[in-house]
Design brief:
alpha+beta, 4-stranded antiparallel β-sheet, 8 helices, globular
Length: about 220
């Protein structure tokens, strides 16, 4: 088990500077866009192709010029994510967010070189994602059979309000509406079992995630 201060840097990628962080923003945008295309193909939603292409055009038009800065890619990802959420909810319904999230995670599993069946792998990815927004996190357990990550304050909530102030249209009332099925799918895509708890502490909304190789025993503490 590993204890770590909530404000301590997560890992080398999170604390080494803007290049690894920028790369993760780019990768997340690729996974979401490729996953959306895969989702539309699998649902045989040919009637929505024109709308899909319009979303893609807006998404790619907003990409930073050249290599771009981390802040530019962060804004591009968030705006693109908001556009894709709006597309899925408008044309398929709120209930299909989980199917899109699963499609995104299939792309993640296909391109991610880290091994399956290691509980630390998807939660370390979640930890890095949380770090991109400056969220406060702590490991409660960190092992290949079982890992538990706590996000004490999810700073996505803060960034959403900043984005709303810049005029980014937000379809979902809460980031958890997409993040919960997306994180669940990311963990299961690595051949693991996922459990979560949404929390609200003094410092703000957060969550607690566990990834395990084996199904938790009934009545066991999590």
């Amino acid at each position: 088990m590993t204890d770590r201060n909530l404000t301590e840097p997560r890992d080398a990628a999170a604390g080494a500077g803007p290049a690894p962080r920028t790369a993760l923003w780019k990768r997340r945008l690729f996974e979401a866009e490729a996953g959306l295309t895969r989702f539309v193909v699998e649902t045989r939603a040919g009637a929505h192709l024109h709308s899909l292409l319009k979303v893609k055009a807006a998404l790619f038009a907003a990409l930073p010029p050249g290599s771009g800065t981390e802040a530019e890619w962060k804004a591009a990802f968030f705006r693109g994510q908001a556009l894709m959420e709006q597309f899925v909810v408008t044309h398929f319904g709120h209930g299909q967010l989980a199917a899109w999230a699963a499609s995104n995670s299939a792309v993640y599993a296909a391109v991610d070189p880290a091994p399956k069946h290691d509980a630390t792998v998807p939660l370390e990815r979640l930890d890095r994602q949380a770090g991109l927004y400056g969220s406060a996190t702590a490991w409660e357990e960190h092992g290949p059979d079982r890992a538990v990550l706590r996000i004490g304050h999810c700073a996505i909530w803060d960034y959403r309000e900043l984005a709303r102030g810049r005029g980014v249209p937000l379809t979902l009332a809460s980031p958890c509406e997409y993040c919960v099925p997306a994180t669940t799918a990311m963990i299961t895509a690595k051949g693991l079992h996922a459990r979560h708890e949404l929390t609200r502490e003094v410092e703000g909304p957060g969550c607690r995630w566990s990834a395990e190789r084996e199904l938790p025993r009934p009545g066991s503490a999590d």
